[in-house]
Amino acid sequence: MKLKNWKEVTPGAVCTEAGSALKFKTGSWRAFKPRWIEENCIQCLFCWIYCPDMAIEVKDGKRGVYRYDYCKGCGICALECPGKKGKKAIVMEEEGK
Amino acid sequence: MATGITLKELSKKEELLTGGHRMCSGCGAPIIVKMVLLASDYPIIAANATGCLEVSTCISDYTAWKIPWIHQSLSGAMERGHDMIYICYDNGAYMNTGIQRSSATPFGADTTTCPAGSVIPGKTQQRKNLTKIMAAHDIPYAAQASPSHWMDLVKKVKKALDIKGPKFMNVLSPCNRGWRSRTDDAIMLSRLGVETCYWPLYEIEDGVTKVTFKPREKKPLADFLKPQGRFKHMFAPENEWMLKRAQEMVDKEWGSLLKAEAK
What we know:
The structure holds two protein chains of two kinds.
Chain A: E1 32-36, H1 46-50, E2 56-59, E3 62-66, H2 76-80, E4 90-94
Antiparallel strand pairs in A: 1-4, 2-3
Chain B: H1 7-10, H2 29-39, E1 46-48, H3 52-57, E2 58-59, E3 62-63, E4 69-71, H4 75-80, E5 84-90, H5 130-135, E6 141-145, H6 150-161, E7 166-172, H7 176-179, H8 186-195, E8 202-205, E9 208-211, H9 222-225, H10 240-262
Parallel strand pairs in B: 1-4, 5-7, 6-7
Antiparallel strand pairs in B: 2-3, 6-8, 8-9
């Protein structure tokens, strides 16, 4: 990502665009990556409500994919996931493996 | 669900705090902000006092907010009676500047300005009860919540927004850097805070106290302290008195809360 030079920044560095933080990808912070296993998912949406980085998509009330651009790999989703029949629907895996 | 509040319904609303903010991995605060924003059906203006949340969501030219936000301050605003809700995310220290002790730091905790060692065993004073201080302003609504109990939190925000006048909410916000815990346990720890009655869920509406969640079985405080490195020294044999004292503080507050409710 290219940073703006001083001429391109607004006077006083005023933010003129709501939610512009989306342009800043925090996914590179991750050391562990969550993997969603759909067949074990009971659609409780706990992962979505407890995610600190808005990194889980939900469409029409259904659990969607990870937004890996923003996921920092904290692992809260995997810990809170109740899974199905003792099998987690989210597992954490070492990044880059 | 009797309340009509479900995650499925909430998930259809726009997320007003975006990803790409620079709070630490596994931080409790953005989870709380998300829940609060989802609870509102009104247009919101956020006012931030300087802290982690402010500096990490608004870094030069980037903002994670999709709503207007301004800077603000607390006791005076409550006294003047502004029609606003103040939500404190309480992580129990000056985490933003490097984990310095604050008046909200719990008894016994190790911080960078009250380090546990041979001179002192962590913070020697007890935690200031901010929720009760705010309730003492005789405001129409003061409450305590935890992100682990998302529906309780969402219901309290909804209720507060429908009341005219100054409202206050204190929400437990795990901080893995300052609590010396894992990055994935923010929700687990906030749940243990509630289940041990370290962080009781209650509300004071027009002076009437109501405990909104009573654990079936009150867990020993040690369950909440043990996973946190900041309390590690309290588990040394010579510091057994600290565990006992901390438990007594929690029991006393829980007891007085139940008594206030019975009135």
